[in-house]
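Holo prediction. Input below; ligand is nicotinamide-adenine-dinucleotide.
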Amino acid sequence: MQNYDIIFEKFADELGPVKTVHIYDPRTGTKGIVVIDNVARGPAIGGVRLALDIDTEEVMRLARTMTLKNAAAGLPHGGGKAGIIGDPHTADKETLLRAFARKIRELTDYIPGPDMGTDEECMGYIHDEIGRCIGKPRALGGIPLDEIGATGYGLSRVAGLALPFAGISPECATMAVQGFGNVGRHAAAFLARQGVRLIAASDTSGTIRRDEGLEVDTLIRVKKEEGTVLAYPGGSKLTRDEIFKISCDIFIPAAQPDVITLENVETFQAKVILEGANIPVTEEAERLLHDRGVLCIPDFIANAGGVICAAVEHRGGSETQAFDVIREKLEQTTGELLSAIGREKLYPREAAMRMAIDRVKVAMVLRR
Ligand code: NAD
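Structure of the complex:
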């Protein structure tokens, strides 16, 4: 159990959160939390996470990340997040999501989207109840961002600027991808089209490695059909975490939070890290890597492709427009970030935070 007074003491600052709402629907037993962190730039966008262990503190942290991500990407949106307490494998999602949607009907400055444990179908239920969400099924006018690889595409555009900054040419570069799911596989596919060679990929079952290069389409197919990257024909099979020790130019963590920490950072071999997952590298490890000359592009800059796509969907835009806007916004943000790092000798996260917070504060001055 959490003490809300202590959580507020710890988290409330000059940006937010502006609203924290606990939801309970006695009829279905649905319990949830919604945090609207900041709406100065526009209505808050953020996913609905379905998990057994979700709590107020986590939802607050995630909502703040969305404020920073949306501001850094230059979107006219604030940040929010929601959590529904339930087992994503066994829960009756339709009942939970419909009850949740009815409870947030009046919270019009929060626009829900998919997140861990929820998907397009869940957004379909929310849309049916209240007509307000992003990440809807295509049949309802949505843009299926995981299917089209919006976040992976964004990572590849960020790489387009980050690699030359680090003195690496894409045609000669190698990459390793931790977590070959929606984010990881699309990032690998888009980067492979720029000439980058995929030499290792992992999932929960292990790591597949081939220094001459893994054929990305084949790897995507076997992962889909057999459920693991280890089913790839050829290459060597390593344990799950051996991927961290592989020497490569680009490392993309696209699985879990806190996978690179002070514990394992010393063995780490890559030159550029593109943070596909949220908070995959602890802040202390990020600083140590930067001091060692590793360029680390922070999560809320690098993985913003998905939310940019969602914002395009919200305005009724098309898939083609979504790709164009992702490219334009991420190239601009990454360019600004890299010049701040180069000019002011800041750590990347410090520079990114400053950029995002300044944008929110400017909007706050203009709003009542
Ligand atoms: P996913 O479930 O589609 O894929 C995750 C993959 O990681 C799976 O293949 C799983 O087997 C693997 N995995 C899990 N734990 C692992 C571990 N310890 N080592 C190696 N592999 C592991 O999820 P996703 O949508 O690709 O999201 C991945 C991460 O990126 C999450 O943290 C998510 O919050 C974040 N993210 C996703 C998006 C998006 O557009 N989907 C956008 C921004 C951030």
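The chain has two domains: 4-65+79-142, 150-358. That is the main takeaway for now.
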